[in-house]
């Protein structure tokens, strides 16, 4: 790693041929938030806005996504993206941090914990899974949605994407206004998917943390699933929590894969509680100074 361009709120670091774009906000114990497929780091804005009042929050664009260009010399894989996440932590000067991951970002967070357990204070795993192939199974409904996301007018493609990530009770709100509001958080027009998405999906499909998850026993972990999630089914979330000794599992009713953006208050409350509990437990045992960064 080399070449911090501007270590203020937003900056770039050079890591294995990619200039990773990073953003750091807030003050307090460190939190690294890791995004999923086809979403840039600013997709965490609703969470950062809440958490940055007490935490130092770092977000970044995964390599090949958003402003993290070019793709670089490394393969697009979960282990490589985990190394990118550690490089971001290094650029912040953090020896450890709380990790929050959504979807593919949850797999990346799991791998970081498996290869650098001492650098992870806690895990918050949202709408994710222990095996990437669980998220890439193609049912008839998923195939039809995928076709509609690629064919038709731009308006029709946006609506198909929203139907994929929003719960059934939100269908009345699937509007041009919603697509326009969410586009800056995803980092692109919802009618289009970034070129890197197919490589990210391939990386996701090829990764399985299941055989090693027992190694993370004792690490404070929160697993959150959404009852209408078509990408990360509740069964996958339950399997993940069961494989992580001591993990807490919460299922959110009337929610789907996009719940961090659709219902940020619910997610933020869960994250806030988990982070505070993790800090308090570590302070009580003398393993962590909650004010250190």
- CATH class bucket: Alpha Beta
Which second-level CATH architecture applies?
Answer: 3-Layer(aba) Sandwich
Overall structural class, as computed from helix and strand content, comes to alpha/beta
Q: Spatial order of the strands in the main sheet?
A: 1-2-4-3-5-6-7-8
Give the mean pLDDT: 90
Helix % is 25-40%
Task: Calculate Rg over CA atoms.
Answer: 18 Å
Number of domains: 1
The residue ranges in which pLDDT falls below 50 over 5 or more consecutive positions are 1-7, 289-293
**Which fold does the CATH topology refer to?**
Rossmann fold
Overall morphology: globular
Strand content: 15-25%
The CATH homologous superfamily: Alpha/Beta hydrolase fold, catalytic domain
Tally of DSSP helical segments: 10
**How far is the first residue's CA from the last residue's CA?**
20 Å
Q: Count the E strands.
A: 8
What pattern of helices and strands is seen along the backbone?
EEEHEHEHEHHHHEHEHH
Largest sheet: 8 strands, mixed
Descriptive account of the structure:
The chain has helices at residues 45-51, 78-92, 104-115, 140-150, 154-165, 176-186, 197-205, 234-243, 259-262, 264-285; strands at residues 10-15, 18-25, 30-34, 56-60, 97-102, 120-126, 221-226, 248-252. The radius of gyration is 18 Å and the shape is globular. It has 10 helices and 8 strands. It has a single domain (10-135, 197-285), classed as Alpha/Beta hydrolase fold, catalytic domain (Rossmann fold). With 293 residues, it is an alpha/beta fold. Helix 3 links the parallel strand 5 (97-102) and strand 6 (120-126). The two termini are 20 Å apart. Strands 1-2-4-3-5-6-7-8 form an 8-stranded mixed beta sheet, with helices on both faces. Helix 1 packs across helix 10 and helix 4 (140-150) runs antiparallel to helix 5 (154-165).
């Amino acid at each position: 790693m080399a070449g911090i361009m501007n270590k203020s709120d937003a900056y770039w670091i050079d890591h294995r041929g990619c200039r990773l774009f990073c953003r750091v906000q807030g003050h307090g114990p460190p939190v690294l938030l890791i995004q999923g497929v086809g979403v840039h780091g600013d997709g965490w804005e609703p969470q950062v806005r809440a958490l940055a009042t007490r935490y130092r929050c770092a977000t970044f664009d995964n390599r090949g996504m958003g402003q993290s260009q070019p793709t670089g010399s490394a393969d697009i894989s979960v282990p490589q993206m985990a190394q990118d996440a550690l490089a971001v932590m290094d650029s912040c000067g953090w020896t450890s941090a709380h990790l929050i991951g959504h979807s593919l970002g949850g797999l990346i967070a799991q791998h970081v914990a498996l290869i650098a357990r001492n650098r992870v204070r806690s895990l918050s795993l949202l709408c994710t899974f222990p095996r990437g192939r669980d998220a890439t199974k193609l049912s008839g409904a998923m195939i039809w949605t995928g076709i509609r996301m690629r064919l038709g007018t731009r308006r029709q493609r946006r609506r198909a994407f929203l139907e994929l990530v929003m719960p059934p009770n939100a269908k009345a709100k699937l509007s041009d206004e919603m697509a326009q509001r969410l586009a800056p958080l995803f980092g692109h027009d919802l009618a289009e998917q970034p070129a890197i998405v197919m490589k990210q999906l391939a990386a996701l499909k090829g990764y399985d943390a299941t055989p090693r998850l027992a190694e993370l026993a004792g690490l404070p972990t929160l697993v959150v699933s959404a009852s209408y999630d078509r990408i990360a089914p509740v069964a996958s979330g339950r399997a993940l929590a069961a494989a992580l000794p001591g993990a807490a599992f919460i299922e959110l009713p009337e929610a789907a894969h996009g719940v961090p953006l659709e219902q940020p208050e619910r997610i933020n409350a869960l994250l806030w509680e988990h982070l505070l509990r993790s800090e308090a437990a570590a302070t009580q045992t003398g393993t962590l100074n909650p004010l250190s960064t």
